[in-house]
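Q: What structure does this chain adopt?
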Amino acid sequence: MPTLNEEDIYLYKARITSVYDGDTVTADVDLGFGIWAHGEKLRLNRINTPEVRGPEREQGLISRDWLREKLMGKMILLQTVKDKKGKYGRYLAEIHLDGVNINDQLVTEGLAEYKSY
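A:
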């Protein structure tokens, strides 16, 4: 993974409103000064989880359900990389909850693998 400069990293408070699968969520993001971005699609950066459709479905549902249990409706700290979106137009994000990097925790739990895109 390339080294990031401090000016390339943005931190926001956000509330998770939907979990599509183990590495895709939707959030309402607090941009500060009373301004919110609603319905932002986020792709968890650096990881990949099994798909919820097709032959990986069973494992994909396990990853998705674990992430839902952890994040649904909760306020998180969202770290994004400046102007960096994935191929489907989602912001690439690191999600932190109670001081824990959820991206890394998914890998630790065996529900995801590290992947560079």
